[in-house]
Amino acid sequence: MVGMVPPRFALIPAVYILLLREAPGAGPASKGGPASSPQVLLQLRRGTGFMDGYWASGAAGHVEAGESVVAAAVREAREELGIDVGAAGLEPLTGMHRSNDVGGAALEQRVDFFFAARSWTGEPRIMEGTRCAGLRWFALADLPEPVPPHERVVLERLAAALDGGAPVPAILPFGFDGERIERCAVARPR
Fold first, then answer.
1. Residue 120: inside a domain, yes or no?
2. How many domains does the chain have?
3. Tens-place pLDDT, residues 5-60
4. E-only strand ranges, the chain
5. Predicted structure pTM score
6. CB–CB of 150/109 below 8 Å?
7. Cβ neighbours around 29 below 10 Å, total
8. Is residue 69 part of a domain?
9. Whole-angstrom Cα distance, residue 44 to residue 38?
10. Which of 94, 165, 177, 183 has its CA 20 to 30 A from that of 129?
11. How far is CA 8 from CA 3, 81, 108, 190, in A?
12. What is the domain extent for residue 71?
């Protein structure tokens, strides 16, 4: 081991903004009946080199040097969707700590901050046509295929929480050797 330089560890932060709305024409639950499934805006990725052809969060991206995760979320919504969510319009959902090298050395890890937004200024539209092949609203209870696996975990947990299930855990590990999300999720204090 003398003279060997250990591999460098990298932790890469990113933000995900999930725009949520009620289905058009849907109202709240009435007389004990279920409410319609909320919808989430997803983008069809292309030309990025990562998960192209997948339906992913409407807006997402890396946190820039010296930038807070909240400022990054506001910036990404503006850059990718042409909308203003404002910091006050962001609802923190979960933090996900994940590895892209399942069962490997995990030298590159990600920390993803997921936010929901239920109100914004402007109409979501494609702002980066070379990176996005389409925008579409989907019911959380009926997600398309394919969705990046780490995002699907959050979307499915959010759908269950909005349907009266357990809240989305504050922290979700994903992709580490042998770990299962159900076992490792750190619950929010009640």
1. yes
2. 1
3. 666 778 889 999 999 999 887 655 444 444 567 999 999 999 998 899 999 999 99
4. 10-21, 39-45, 55-57, 59-62, 90-99, 108-117, 132-139, 171-174
5. 0.84
6. no
7. 10
8. yes
9. 19
10. 94
11. 15, 35, 9, 38
12. 10-22+37-184
